Amino acid sequence: MDFQHIFASRASRMKASEIRELLKLLEQPGIISFAGGIPDPAIFPAAAFKEAYQDALSAEKQSTALQYSVSEGYLPLRKWLAQQMAKLGVDCGPENILITSGSQQALDYLGKLFLSPNDTALINWPTYLGALGAFNAYEPRYDRLQVNGNRSAADYAAEAEAAGGRVKFAYLSADFSNPTGETVDQRGRENLLALAEDLDCAVIEDAAYQSLRYDGEAIAPILALEMARKGDINACRTVYCGSFSKTLSPGLRVGWVCAAAPVISQMVLLKQAGDLHSSTVNQMAIHHVAESQFDSHVAKLHSAYSARRDAMLAALHEFMPEGVSWTRPEGGMFVWITLPVGLNGADLLQRALETVKVAFVPGRAFFADGSGENTIRLSFSCADEATIREGVQRLASVVSAEIAAQ
Ligand code: PMP
Fold it and tell me: Which of 35, 152, 368, 406 could be a cystine partner for 142, CB 3.0 to 4.6 Å?
């Protein structure tokens, strides 16, 4: 049966992710993959998780671990997170924390909470593909967020109104963003807060990579900057989305939202309607591991990933031809490459897979307007330094051939 005519109009904006389709190709032997933005499984704190599950399933705790629980999330974990947020400059209590099934669920719920059809979401060009996927279902219009640009709030508001709605939020990943690896400096964060005040909209701060800073000075989260001005989290318009996926494990699907109580209580209702609560046993396991070794484990990630980032930047410098430029991230998992105009990232991927067995993600999917044809995203998180050098050398040979054929 053809169901298209009975699907809701929102279904027409749901597309298969180019990345997911591509991941299928990566099962071929001998591929060097810079494609998936995933943690290196060799560094998972597996022994600590084994111990954590044993503890959660002990006679004393199993009736909690295996039972339904509250939608807000496991209280000891929320208390631990409130302490972590305080260290980042966000003074809050567990009532300001909601546990979600990964930060992806938070993005979906925030889309559901804020966006009516034709409302405007301000996003970066490019932005996290999964955020587009989450928000698309709520049929928004996108406009380009430029924190250091000269468009006024009145301009943004007028265009949003002409499109039949209003600006509801600005979404961004301020630290080592997916896909560019770039960080918004403190001035940019302050500008964004001023813009959000003028537009009277929310700010969604996606902090998925925030703990992965390898060098340079840490910049306070947007929520912390707003707290410093307002002194009370319940007066803040920033909604902070955190995740354990890039630090401890993505498989357990544990993330959190830290925000003003009215946002949290509304999201609790969404959570009740959506999945009741995130897995209790997984929240207990995350709490057990985070409490005993979050900082030491993150330090391990820093040393492994920074060496890989350095290897990638060195190889790009050594092998990439004239006319190719790239970002120099201070953390995270990604380097973003801009190829000469006229080259196409998707064609390059096909050629690179066929001829030199190197995979990456073409950049176009990260642009809400379908631009960015000559960009690609490379992830350095999962290959060792020698493999990274080899992969970049092979990729550069294909780029050089494409340029020569132009
Ligand atoms: N935000 C960003 C920027 C991401 O890159 C990802 C994962 N790739 C997520 C959110 C979602 O991660 P999770 O649901 O595993 O927390």
Answer: 368
Joined together, the tokens standing for residue 149 give 């640009």
| 125 shares its domain with 268 | yes
Pocket of ligand 1 (CB under 6 A): 37, 102-104, 128, 130, 173, 178, 206, 208, 243, 245, 250, 255
SS3 state at 343? strand
Whether residue 262 is found in the same domain as residue 273: yes
Domain that holds residue 164: 67-293
Residue where the block lists tokens 């567990």: 94
Per-residue pLDDT of the chain (406 residues; tens, 9 = 90+): 989 899 998 888 887 766 566 667 777 788 999 998 999 999 999 999 999 999 999 999 999 999 999 999 999 999 999 999 999 999 999 999 999 999 999 999 999 999 999 999 999 999 999 999 999 999 999 999 998 888 999 999 999 999 999 999 999 999 999 999 999 999 999 999 999 999 999 999 999 999 999 999 999 999 999 999 999 999 999 999 999 999 999 999 999 999 999 999 999 999 999 999 999 999 999 999 999 999 999 999 999 999 999 999 999 999 999 999 999 999 999 999 999 999 999 999 999 999 999 999 999 999 999 899 999 999 999 999 999 999 999 999 999 999 999 8
Closest C-alpha among 187, 193, 174 to residue 127: 174
Atom of ligand 1 at shortest range from CA of 250: 15
Indicate if 270 and 216 belong to the same structural domain.
Answer: yes
Q: Does residue 213 contact residue 240 with C-beta atoms inside 8 Å?
A: no
Q: How far apart are CA 60 and CA 114, in angstroms?
A: 41
- Asked whether residue 312 is assigned to any structural domain, the reply reads yes
Nearest residue to 137 via CA among 157, 153, 117, 154: 117
Ligand 1 pocket test target in 128, 239, 278, 361 with most atoms within 8 Å of CB:
128
In terms of domains, do 383 and 236 share one? no
Q: Which of residues 293, 322, 350 is at a domain's end?
A: 293
Taking the centre of ligand 1 as the mean of its atom positions, its distance from the CA of residue 305, in whole angstroms, is 17
- Is residue 276 domain-shared with residue 334, that is, in the same domain? no
Which pTM was predicted? 0.96
